[in-house]
Design a protein that fits this description.
Serine Threonine Protein Phosphatase 5, Tetratricopeptide repeat; 434 Repressor (Amino-terminal Domain); mainly alpha; three-stranded mixed beta sheet; 610 residues; 3 strands
Length: 610
């Protein structure tokens, strides 16, 4: 029998040898946790994230179905984060007066903690009252960590929000001894407790960005280099590099002070180019707090009412037919319009009847084993880094551990194996496209027979697509590009994009898929000489990279800016963006030769890059 999320969390508590009292401290009672784990009560997204992070696990492995109230809160936090990054403290103050800031419908404790934290920040940034600011931020931390800052011991379990609050408090702290003690604790804690890369990279570079200037000032250069190198490796490996400028600058200074200037010359050049690019993009790093305000947009998000309504219409049910033996048609109508959230029993019954996963939190593949999700994350990372031989080994291991009779599982495995085969030259273009169509047909019964995607019926595009189906169609667009069918590739990606845009959920909450779609559309329209559209998608890609903290594709979008400028006759802008794309790609250890060649071809000469 398939395990519930509660059962998987229970196993994680046991295998991690975690005390339920320590896990719940400040967040909820152990009796409430028991009800969540037994499925008697729905756990809200804020609490789930905090509990998983306290367990050292990443909630990013799960997509999340949110109620209207929850989504409005996350959207509000995203607007707040943007205002903070822009240093618009008047706007932040106004946002703190909105209903979403004050109502506690998502999670009373965690919402109150965030509210107090932001009130404290505003007191210092807008009103210059540091004493009141420190008191409010300390009160925020103590909502869930009552002994802070006096007692930081080995039994303490912390979420990302709690650590961010501690770091903001530390930044306001005049007592350097106390400040260093907090940073030493957090530096060790994030490395030892956060076992999964998706979580540790959200925290360790942020801790390093605050700790390195202190170590540098104390002339502890070896320690500075060690911590800086760890943080840089994490950011380069994942592309999640919101703290890059501060960490890299202090790392380079420590190396130069140690007599290693020659060995970090390349890093110094990359740093200056990175700083210049960030200023050009309007992303000035005026304070160490900037990176703490980034919203966590790595989880896929769906609105509960949209999900149920779409699935009902796709199955051809009326509200009366779907609600039969579950609830009244009137109740279902209120659920679908977001006026009411269903209870656990009602939601599970509706989801079962609609053949949806019955949990509010689910992964792209169906499994009841966290280690399987770890393997999937490993495969995705290897594919992203073009390490196809290694990816093939892990996919074959994955095949042995998941149920391939489940459509989305078989679809994911076959897609990954086909991508690997294609990239390693075992499958040709025409064969690959037909293969991907067959893989898509695993979960889509009414798969069109035509090869030309522009001839697929309008009814096909009206259905909601799963994350794995979208991934397959992205691969199909890549194959069409290889076949020089650029217009078809663009048509396909526009149709998939339109499916996402029909939702009220913002693109950044579909980040993983949207960023890949936007990247392709930016390139396709450049090739098709539709430069206005090419630039529009390049700008959207840059925006998504900045609001998410994920810089992986930033060099690509900057390069596309340069290509559009060149094609429109602006040689100076073209050269500038090609240069910045090259240096940022080199820094993030991504493919950079193309960017260099674009610059040198336009310049009509070779350039000394370092």
């Amino acid at each position: 029998m398939k395990k519930t999320l509660g059962q998987m969390l229970s196993e994680a508590i046991v295998t991690g040898n975690v005390s339920q009292t320590d896990l719940c401290r400040g967040l909820c009672s152990t009796s409430a946790l028991s009800r969540y784990l037994n499925g008697e009560r729905r756990i809200d997204r804020l609490l789930l994230t905090a509990l998983m992070q306290r367990l050292g696990l990443s909630p990013d492995k799960f997509a999340t179905v949110l109620t209207e109230e929850e989504y409005y809160y996350f959207d509000w936090k995203q607007r707040l984060a943007s205002a903070q990054i822009e240093q618009d403290w008047e706007k932040v103050s106004l946002l703190l007066e909105e209903n979403e800031a004050k109502d506690r419908s998502c999670n009373q404790v965690l919402q109150e903690q965030f509210y107090l934290l932001m009130q404290g920040v505003v007191q210092e940034r807008l009103l210059r009252d540091r004493e009141k600011s420190l008191a409010l931020i300390k009160q925020a931390v103590q909502q869930t960590v009552s002994a802070f800052p006096d007692k930081l011991d080995s039994n303490l379990l912390l979420s990302v929000q709690e650590i961010s609050a501690m770091l903001i408090w530390q930044g306001e702290q005049a007592d350097e001894e106390m400040s260093v003690r907090v940073l030493q604790f957090l530096e060790a804690y994030t490395l030892t407790h956060y076992r999964e890369e998706q979580e540790v990279v959200k925290l360790y570079p942020k801790v390093a960005a605050r700790y390195l200037p202190i170590l540098l000032n104390q002339e502890k250069y070896y320690e500075c280099l060690t911590i800086g190198e760890k943080a840089l490796d994490m950011m380069i490996s994942t592309g999640y590099a919101s703290s890059m400028e501060t960490v890299l600058e202090n790392y380079v200074k420590a190396a130069e002070a140690s007599g290693l200037a020659e060995s970090v010359h390349k890093k110094r050049v990359q740093l200056e180019a990175w700083k210049e690019l960030m200023r050009e993009l309007g992303h000035t790093e005026r304070g160490l707090d900037d990176e703490l305000y980034m919203m966590d947009v790595w989880q896929e998000v769906e609105l509960l009412d949209e999900r149920l309504s779409r699935a009902r219409q796709q199955h051809g049910y009326s509200q009366e037919a779907l609600s039969e033996d579950i609830c009244t048609p009137e109740t279902l109508s209120r659920i679908e319009t977001g006026k009411r959230a269903p209870n656990q029993r009602t939601y599970k019954a509706l989801a079962k009847k609609l053949s949806l996963q019955e949990e509010y939190y689910y992964s792209e593949i169906e499994t009841d084993d966290f280690s399987v999700l770890d393997k999937k994350a490993q495969v995705d990372k290897l594919i992203m880094n073009w390490e196809f031989e290694k990816a093939e080994i892990v996919v074959n291991e994955l095949k042995e551990t998941i149920d391939l009779s489940v459509g989305c599982n078989r679809q994911y495995v076959e897609e990954m194996l086909s991508v690997i085969g294609f990239e390693l030259g075992r499958i040709d273009k025409e064969e690959m496209f037909s293969l991907l169509k067959n893989i898509l047909a695993i979960t889509i019964e009414s798969m069109p027979e035509e090869i030309d995607v522009q001839k697929w019926p309008a009814t096909f595009w009206k259905r909601p697509f799963t994350a794995v189906e979208v991934s397959v169609m992205i691969q199909m667009a890549d194959v069409l590009t290889n076949m020089k069918l650029i217009e078809q590739a663009a048509f396909l990606m526009e149709k998939v994009m339109a499916c996402y845009l029909r939702s009220r959920v913002k693109p950044e909450f579909h980040f993983r898929a949207i960023i890949l779609i936007v990247a392709r559309l930016s390139s396709y329209y450049g090739v098709l000489a539709k430069y206005e559209k090419a630039l529009q998608y390049a700008e959207e890609g840059i925006r998504l990279c900045l609001v998410s903290g994920t810089r992986k594709l930033l060099p690509f979008f900057v390069n596309n800016r340069g290509a559009v400028a060149e094609c429109l006759g602006n040689k100076k802008a073209g050269l500038y963006y090609y240069k910045q794309a090259f240096y940022s790609a080199e820094l993030l250890e991504k493919k950079s030769d193309d960017f260099k060649s674009y610059y040198e071809k336009l310049a009509g000469r070779k350039r000394k890059w370092y």
